[in-house]
């Protein structure tokens, strides 16, 4: 795979990134290590994780994913030097006091979180260090309306950038990024970085898939003009776009056993459990079948080939799933299929935004 520059940074990454939030919950450590090794074998050397993983978030598994990756590095000498490693500092608590107490995210929080991630990952430097969700109040994870009355921000963006800048200067972080961000947030981080000589964000990791294309409603222009890259997560919409829920639905006795969206209530309460999300997914999945593609091929090819996307983050629970997702790379969608995709979106818009 030809590597792609990440924003205006010196990082070059593969157009597919291995997401790891299943490691330590759905995926045990031996399987996770096998997936990591197979990913590297097939040329995907870009890995994304976070201090709060595994998902769904629980006190008992907080940090487990980073620990598993760190153990893989230790068991595979030389692997760390081949990997572009991304992780994330959690934003304000959002009901997870074991990750972050209170409503803010101080400079001390950022520094402590970075040191914790470095320790668990058994590495001296993080290549891409991202803010997992904004410190200020924004509508994310299925919420779509901004409400200024809910604002609880305590740490200005300038202070967050200064904290990240100290980590870069100390050699503990190479490049910084954002996640679950808005056009305002991206503009403000770039503006303040340029005004004060602080690190410039290279990327934004946001949801982007067939049933959640809100990125195209202004954020894509913002990032294009500012030279910031998109890391697209959940390209298969937590499995909705694989077709496995088409007949059974996401709940009930016939729902796939062990699947994230059917197993965890916290996941269903967010965007992926919305009835319109499954209704839209069924239409896209049938479109794929009508054109001789699997639903997974259609959904991944959509992300793999969009100009807005620098790298697509794939999350898997087995080596077989990894191979299936990687085999979809290179699939092209005809003009007719792309037109049909846009027609479906016009009918149902972004039900999992």
3D structure, described in words:
The radius of gyration is 19 Å and the shape is globular. The protein starts with a strand and ends in a 5-residue tail after the last helix. Helix content is 39%, strand content 14%. The protein is an alpha/beta fold and 353 residues long. Strands 3-4-5-6-7-8-9-10 form an eight-stranded parallel barrel, surrounded by six helices. It has a two-stranded antiparallel ribbon with strand order 1-2. The mean pLDDT is 94. The chain has one domain: NADP-dependent oxidoreductase domain (TIM Barrel).
Helix/strand order, N-terminal first = EEEHEHHEHEHEHEHEHHHHEHH
> How many domains make up the coordinates?
1
Shape: globular
Structural category: alpha/beta
Task: Please specify the SSE layout and strand pairing.
Elements: E1 4-5, E2 12-13, E3 16-19, H1 29-41, E4 46-48, H2 64-75, H3 79-82, E5 84-89, H4 107-121, E6 126-131, H5 157-169, E7 173-179, H6 183-196, E8 201-207, H7 219-226, E9 229-233, H8 260-263, H9 265-268, H10 275-290, H11 295-305, E10 309-315, H12 319-327, H13 335-348
Parallel strand pairs: 3-4, 3-10, 4-5, 5-6, 6-7, 7-8, 8-9, 9-10
Antiparallel strand pairs: 1-2
Question: Any key phrases for this structure?
Answer:
globular, NAD(P)_OxRdtase_dom_sf, TIM Barrel, 10 strands, AKR_Detox_Biosynth, alpha/beta, oxidoreductase activity
Summarize the structure.
By secondary structure, this protein is α/β, with parallel strands linked by helices.
């Amino acid at each position: 795979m030809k590597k792609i520059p990440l924003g205006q940074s010196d990082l070059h990454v593969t157009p597919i990134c291995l997401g790891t939030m299943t490691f330590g919950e759905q995926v045990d450590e031996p399987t996770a290590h096998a997936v990591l090794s197979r990913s590297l074998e097939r040329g995907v050397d870009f890995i994304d994780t976070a201090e709060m993983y595994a998902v769904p978030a629980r006190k008992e598994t907080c940090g487990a994913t980073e620990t598993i990756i760190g153990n893989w590095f230790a068991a595979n000498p030389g692997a760390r030097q081949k990997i572009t490693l991304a992780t994330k500092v959690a934003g304000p608590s959002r009901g997870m006091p074991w990750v972050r107490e209170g409503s803010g995210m101080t400079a001390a929080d950022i520094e402590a979180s970075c040191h914790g991630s470095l320790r668990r990952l058994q590495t001296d430097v993080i290549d891409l260090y991202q803010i997992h969700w904004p410190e200020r109040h924004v509508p994310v994870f299925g919420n779509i309306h901004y409400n200024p009355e809910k604002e609880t921000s305590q740490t200005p963006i300038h202070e967050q950038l200064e904290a990240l800048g100290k980590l870069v200067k100390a050699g503990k972080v190479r490049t910084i990024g954002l996640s679950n961000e808005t056009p305002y947030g991206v503009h403000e981080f770039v503006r303040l970085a340029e005004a004060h000589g602080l690190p410039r964000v290279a990327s934004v990791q946001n949801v982007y898939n067939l049933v959640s294309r809100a990125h195209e409603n202004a954020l894509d222009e913002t990032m294009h003009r500012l030279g910031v890259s998109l890391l697209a997560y959940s390209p298969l919409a937590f499995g909705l776009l694989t077709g496995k829920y088409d007949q059974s639905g996401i709940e009930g006795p016939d729902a796939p056993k062990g699947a994230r969206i059917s197993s965890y209530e916290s996941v269903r309460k967010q965007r992926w459990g919305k009835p319109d999300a499954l209704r839209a997914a069924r239409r896209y999945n049938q479109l794929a079948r009508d054109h001789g593609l699997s639903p997974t091929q259609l959904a991944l090819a959509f992300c793999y080939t969009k100009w807005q996307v620098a790298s697509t983050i794939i999350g898997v629970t087995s080596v077989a799933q990894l191979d299936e997702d990687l085999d979809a790379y290179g699939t092209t969608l005809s003009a007719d299929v792309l037109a049909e995709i846009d027609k479906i979106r016009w009918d149902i818009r972004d039900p999992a935004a």
